[in-house]
Known about the structure:
This protein is of the alpha/beta class.
Amino acid sequence: MKRVGFGEYGGPDVLRLEEVEAPHAGPGRIRIAVRAAGVNPVDWRIREGQMLKAHPIELPAGVGLDAAGVVDEVGEGVEGVEAGDHVFGEGIDTYAEFAVLTAWARMPEGLSFEEAAGYPSVVETALRVIREVGVRPGQTLLVSGASGGVGSAVLQIARERGITVIGTAGAANQEYLRGLGAMATTYGEGWVERVRRLGDVDAALDLAGTGVLPELIALTGDPRKVISIADLGAPEHGVRFSGVAGSVPDALAEAADLIARGRLHIPVEQRYALADAAAAHIDSKAGHARGRRVVII
């Protein structure tokens, strides 16, 4: 089968489209014929060697955690799913024609494979950071870098829970944020004062890693009220860096419920062929997304 892999840590040029043996579903796992794979910042962070403690891997390795596709092999002990089912979930080396999933859920009716591939890690991360930052209904959450996949999910999940959200993003994404129920403002000089004019901030999330932690601490009044998923230097500011996933099956179940009820929708902004994975990583690292990026198999 074809998959994207790399034999050494480095830039996007280390990625190769290669022929390898297809994996098989072990106990408690399933294999899918991949139709689309989600592109996440953690993918290129792993490729660069930034995540060795959280995601130790043996080289050569494949790429990708999220995927959607058709079940074609069910491991021992797995119940409630069979060959032919359409599922989305999290697994191993998902930029490939076949991949093994470790957590999955049935795709909600009407959801395309490329849409579904964009949800697993994004929704798990959104649910986790909302929980970890401790924001409650009636309070206000500031989201820095709000227009990407995780930000899009945070805004909608927070709205569903009765949390007011202020989102920062580029000028081109202001209406997009407002459409997701957030008060919106731009980056750049004076952004802190613009946020203050929108209201008091009870908690804040750094989703982009653009060096704004001191400002987020000033706005919330306490580094313990700030969580980052993108700035590895967060602990130097007394801010928690959140990088370890919680329950992915629970997150997938909640995502499927929200999607089915029309309470969560994350658009696919860019699509890439398997051979163009390097371009997907370059674009992901550059940021400025509106929704999700996916690799189409």
